[in-house]
Structures are given as structure tokens and as C-alpha cells.
Amino acid sequence: MSLYQLSKLLYELNRDDTLKTRFRADPRDIVSGYTLSEEEREAILRPDIGLLYVLGVNGQILMHFAALCGIEWSDYLQRMRDGVKQHGPVRAGIYAMTTSVDEKISGA
Amino acid sequence: MSLVFSGVCSHAPGITGRAARAPADQKDALYAVFDDMRARLHAARPDAVIVIAAEHFANFFMNNMPAYALGMSESYEGPIEDPEWLAIPKRKARGDLSLSQRLISEVQQTVDVAFCEEWRFDHGIMVPLHFLDPHNELIVIPANINCQGPPLTPLHRAWAFGEALRRAADAVPERIALVGTGGISHWPATPDSGRINEAWDRDFLDRWSRGDKDAMLAYTDTETYAEGGQGGFEIRTFIAAAAAAGGKGTVHHYQPIPIFAVGCTIGTLEIV
Q1: Chain B partners of A64 at a C-beta cutoff of 8 Å?
Q2: Which residues of A touch B58 (CB under 8 A)?
Q3: Mean pLDDT for the stretch of residues A81-103
């Protein structure tokens, strides 16, 4: 578990347009520069937004990675709910889910 | 010369980015009060506005996280987010290097603030500026309180930071305005986005309006997390704005708008 490294990758990706371009061209190359578990690496490469959420990535970074992947807002929220359904509760961080997986509080 | 304005507002990215998805009457009412806040701010004829934000990993990360930071540059760019996602075009905001240096020197008398010659604005500053400075006229001095990466600075230190900003504003010849931006209760960017604890928000705003320092500083982060979510940690920006002003607050608007993920709030404070 290397949530710090996983989060740092997304933080750097979100704020660096050059890195975004390189990530689009060869994501495996970018990901190899960070010390990640196999599960974390695959979650980025798929990308599996729900699993990234369960692994504990801060939503303020994750929502921009989702937008970068072309995932719109309602879909982003649903993928996190689906992630908790599939992988269980959020394992770390301060962005744990407090509602049930079938609630849609904002209507989205 | 002195602090000439202190106010607070929400900064949720949905306010602009998901504007079309909110009930039109609620969105229009919020936007109208933002217009009113802009009029109040500009009527104070500020030479510069300090925006106390709670940024979201645009500049600061857990590799080197300052509890408090102030910008020290001639200009700042934003938003760091996709302008289409936020529905706010990119701009270069004017800073004032000399003013920053003088403010920081005075703040440092009591608060070990980090200074930043680079700072890119995220929605936490861009949403307020979009409404309060639509023509990009103001000189902006960004300030930040870490509300994202625990361990977080204690509330009494956020109060001390506000007091230090006030002392600094009063020590320079320029007319200084201050805007604190943050949410009260909210669970942004989680599946709970849209959850808002209105009772907890109104209780906080009551303490804030009364200028009741002890009541504002009485929260523990455990309580705040349980009742106000991780977004509730941003009450630090409202507390700092209150400390800077020293007087009572007036809440001009409070309306939970779930698609915006926050109880949308606008208030101003009496400068005492």
C-alpha cells in the first residue's frame, strides 16, 4: 500500500500539461516512475475510478483525474459507488463514503 | 492604511461548472447575492484583496505541506482545472510583490507563514474571483490554510492567522480587502456529494455572526468530520476572516444546493 505515491502521481498529473500528454501517449511509462503496488498500478491504467476511491485517493485529486479520463460528473459519482460495492469500504484517507451505495444525494 | 472589507463566500466548483443543473431560482438567487457582494467589495475601494482559500492540491501536497501560506508574486494564473470543466476561462490575475513582502513580514511576527513566488489558482480562488472580480481588475494576494491534508492546523491558529493578517493590513498604506472562501458542511468529490448538514451549518453561522470566538474555536476535528464532513474543515477560512474583522457578521445568503455540493453562503463582517 503506497497511497502517498499513488496520490502524488495523480497530483502531478493533474497540474502538469506536459505530463498529461506523456501519460496519454504511454501511461505505463509514467506509472513506472512511482512505487506502486500492482493493484494501484492497474487501478490507474484501467482506469478504475471506483478502486482508486476505495484505495483512499483524496476526492479533490480523483475528480480531476476522472475529468481527464473524460468521465462526466454523474458517472464519476456512480463509479465511486460501484467501487465500494465491488471492493468494499474506503480503506484510507478522509474521503470515506457515509451514505449507502444506492443513494444519490445530489440527484447525480 | 487599513482593512476595509472582510467577507466570506462559498467556492464550490459546481457553482460555475454545474450551474445549468441547479434549480434556476436557487442559482439565480445565489448569483444575485454574489453581485451584491461584488458591489460591497468594490465600494470599499480596495487596493488589493487577500483571498484566504483552502486549496485542493493545486500547489501544496503532502511532500511539503504548509499550514499557512501567502503568495508573493507579481501575477498568478488560474484556473488550474480544465476551464470547460469549471466554466471559468483562464486569466492572469495581478499580484503585488512589494505588498506581499510587507504583509508577510508583519504576519511573520506571530505566524510562521510560508511564502510562495509561484501559485496557481484552483476553483477555491477562481470561483470567488469570477463573481467578485469579473473584469480581472483587482490586485490579488492569495492566502491558504491547509484544510485538506491532515494533521490540520488547530482552529485557534486559524484565528491567530486572521489576526495577523489584520495587523498586517493595518500596517501598510494600501486599502486591503479580505475574502475567506470555503464550505461549511459538505462531502465534496465523494459519492456523498450533495449531502449538506443544514442544522450544523446554521449553528456555525450563528456563532460566526455573533463574532463568538470561543464558540467558533470549540469544534474538534473529530466532531467536524462527523457532522460536517471533510469539507467542514474549511471553516478555518471563515474563522480567519472573522478574526481579521473583529466584529459581528451578517449572513446575506445561505441555501443548500445539492448539485453544487454545498450550502451556498455569502456573508460580510463588521470591521472593528
Answers
A1: 81-82, 85
A2: 15
A3: 91
**pLDDT, tens digit, for every residue of B52-96?**
999 999 999 999 999 999 999 999 999 999 999 999 999 999 999
DSSP string, B57-96: SSS--TTS--SEEEE-SSEEEE--S-HHHHT---EEEE--
pLDDT (average), residues B240-261? 98
What residues of A are in contact with residue B261 (Cβ under 8 Å)?
Answer: 106
- Residue B90 in domain: yes
Full residue range of the structural domain in which residue B172 is found: 2-218+231-251
Q: Cβ contact (<8 Å) for B57 and A63? A: no
**Chain B within 8 Å of A100 (Cβ-Cβ)?**
no
CATH number at residue B18: 3.40.830.10
Tell which phi-psi region holds residue A88, choosing left (phi > 0), alpha (psi between -120 and 50) or beta: left
Top-level class of domain A3-87: mainly alpha
ipTM above 0.95, yes or no: no
**Mean of pLDDT over chain B:** 97
The total domain count for chain B is: 1
| A106 contacts B194? CB cut-off 8 A | yes
Verify whether the Cβ–Cβ distance B192 to A99 is below 8 Å: yes
Q: Take residue A57 and report the three cell numbers written for it.
A: 485517493
